[in-house]
């Protein structure tokens, strides 16, 4: 009679190293990691030669707040991390750092959402943002991204409020070799209306409407944004299909305030977060995830056309925590 098989021995719970980044995204990940260095350095420093004790969590709290993660997201992440540390029976700071990356990934995961093109022809995308956030530049980069994916794009220069905005968009249109509808000094709503009709007539896949730079406190200008949206709907009853806000990562908690204000005015469907390579405040994406979870379609870490990429929660968390 064969001997009974030995009873299974419970394996110790191990902290699993994150999966490697896919090869085609590796160069982007390296760029993102470099870009987030200012934000991540203070957080990563907490784990150097640290013990798992109250002091570690207090220092981590300070580091997260300094990165503009915000009070609510910081409290949420710390509570989540403590549960993970206990459950995994982590014994050293390096494991805790990996678990924090998991916690950040799970917090940011709901913000991951692809920009869908093709459900409507054309897909009308309204783009808003305060002056200086990198709105028009981001439209140029987004045009490049869409063209690379095979989509035909028509630009609408509806930022007639800011001097030189039209000229700036014309440069981006020329670089991307795409058509543009503009009217110097014209009414932004009229330009938007004409562009949507032109997009339909010319069979374009996407119409990108560059709206004027706004401060949420400028109520008359915010009202004009509402008007543009109404007029776009008159040109196409299903449009706009996307309403994006470009925010500057440097502005930290102010960026969160902008997301709230523009979402209340326009009903945002997505965000583009720019200039993450020049800021120590990149943790604001965590604050957005906790307090106003509007999807982040793209993030930017540089000035080149290709320096705008789709947002991936795991990549962001890994790049942030080194």
TrEMBL record:
Broad class of the protein's primary localization: membrane
Binding site for GTP: 129-136, 210-214, 274-277
Pfam families membership: SRP54, SRP54_N
Record keywords, A-Z: Cell membrane, Cytoplasm, GTP-binding, Hydrolase, Membrane, Nucleotide-binding, Receptor
A cellular component term, taken from the record's GO annotations: plasma membrane
Membrane topology: Peripheral membrane protein
Reaction catalysis annotation: GTP + H2O = GDP + phosphate + H(+)
Gene Ontology biological process: SRP-dependent cotranslational protein targeting to membrane
Source organism superkingdom: Bacteria
UniProt-annotated location(s): Cell membrane; Cytoplasm
E.C. code: 3.6.5.4
PROSITE patterns: SRP54
Gene Ontology molecular function: any one: signal recognition particle binding
Domain SRP54-type proteins GTP-binding: 295-308
Entries under NCBIfam families matching the protein: ftsY
Subunit: Part of the signal recognition particle protein translocation system, which is composed of SRP and FtsY. SRP is a ribonucleoprotein composed of Ffh and a 4.5S RNA molecule.
Known function: Involved in targeting and insertion of nascent membrane proteins into the cytoplasmic membrane. Acts as a receptor for the complex formed by the signal recognition particle (SRP) and the ribosome-nascent chain (RNC). Interaction with SRP-RNC leads to the transfer of the RNC complex to the Sec translocase for insertion into the membrane, the hydrolysis of GTP by both Ffh and FtsY, and the dissociation of the SRP-FtsY complex into the individual components.
Family per similarity comment: Belongs to the GTP-binding SRP family. FtsY subfamily.
Listed name of the protein: Signal recognition particle receptor FtsY
Record lineage: Bacteria, Pseudomonadati, Pseudomonadota, Betaproteobacteria, Burkholderiales
Annotated gene: ftsY
């Amino acid at each position: 009679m064969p001997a009974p098989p030995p009873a299974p021995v419970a394996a110790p719970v191990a902290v699993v190293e994150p999966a490697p980044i896919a090869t085609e995204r590796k160069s982007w990940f390296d760029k993102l990691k470099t870009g987030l260095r200012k934000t991540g350095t203070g957080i990563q420093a907490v784990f150097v030669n640290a013990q798992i004790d109250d002091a570690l969590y207090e220092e981590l709290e300070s580091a997260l707040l300094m990165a503009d993660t915000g009070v609510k997201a910081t409290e949420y992440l710390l509570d989540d991390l403590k549960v993970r540390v206990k459950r995994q029976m982590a014994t050293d700071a390096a494991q805790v750092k990996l678990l924090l990356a998991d916690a950040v990934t799970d917090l940011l995961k709901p913000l991951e959402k692809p920009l869908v093109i093709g459900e409507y022809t054309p897909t009308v995308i309204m783009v808003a943002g305060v002056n200086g956030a990198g709105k028009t530049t981001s439209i140029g980069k987004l045009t490049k991204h869409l063209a690379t994916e095979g989509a035909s794009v028509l630009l609408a220069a509806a930022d007639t409020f800011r001097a030189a905005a039209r000229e700036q968009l014309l440069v981006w249109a020329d670089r991307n070799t795409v058509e543009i509808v503009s009217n110097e000094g014209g009414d932004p709503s009229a330009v938007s209306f004409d562009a949507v009709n032109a997009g339909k007539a010319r069979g374009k896949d996407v119409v990108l409407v560059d709206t004027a730079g706004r401060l949420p406190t400028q109520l008359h200008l915010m009202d004009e944004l509402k008007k543009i949206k109404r007029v776009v709907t008159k040109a196409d009853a299903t449009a706009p299909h996307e309403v994006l806000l470009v925010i500057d990562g440097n502005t930290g908690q102010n960026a969160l305030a902008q997301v709230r204000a523009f979402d209340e005015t326009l009903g945002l469907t997505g965000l583009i977060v720019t200039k993450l390579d020049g800021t120590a405040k990149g943790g604001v994406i965590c604050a957005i995830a906790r307090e106003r979870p509007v999807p982040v379609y793209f993030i930017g870490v540089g000035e080149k056309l290709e320096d705008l990429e789709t947002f991936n929660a795991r990549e962001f968390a890994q790049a942030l925590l080194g």
